[in-house]
Amino acid sequence: MAEIKVRSEIAGSVWKIEVAVGDVVAEEDALITLESMKMEIPLLAPRAGTVMEILVQEGEAVAEGDIAVILG
Fold first, then answer.
1. Given this model, what pLDDT does residue 2 score?
2. Edge-to-edge strands of the sheet including 61-62?
3. 63 in helix, strand or coil?
4. How many CA within 13 A on the CB side of residue 54?
5. To 5 degrees, how large is the angle CA 27–CA 2–CA 56?
6. From CA 44, how far away is CA 6, in angstroms rounded?
7. Over the Cα atoms of the chain, what is R_g?
8. β-bridge partners, 51
């Protein structure tokens, strides 16, 4: 399976990383929780796969479209 880059859908900050490298996730599993304007927004897996890389850290600011996680 080709790798897929999961991008932030909003600008905000990384509130919580829900997965670790090597975790197997199902479609729609929460990968990261973002916080924006006091709202928590989950970043969901677009398909099942294995977490290959996490490119953000908790507390880090992200812009809309930033790559947060790479699934394999």
1. 87
2. 39-44, 30-36, 12-17, 61-62
3. coil
4. 19
5. 65
6. 8
7. 11
8. 71
**Which pairing describes strands 49-54 and 67-71: parallel, antiparallel, or unpaired?**
antiparallel
DSSP E strand stretches across the chain: 4-7, 12-17, 24-25, 30-36, 39-44, 49-54, 61-62, 67-71
Residue entry with tokens 């829900």 = 18
pLDDT above 70: residue 1: no
Strands 67-71 and 4-7: antiparallel
β-pairing, 4-7 vs 24-25, is unpaired
Asked if residue 54 has pLDDT above 90, the reply is yes
Cβ–Cβ under 8 Å, residues 41 and 33: yes
Using alpha carbons only, give the angle 47, 51, 53 rounded to the nearest 5 degrees. 125
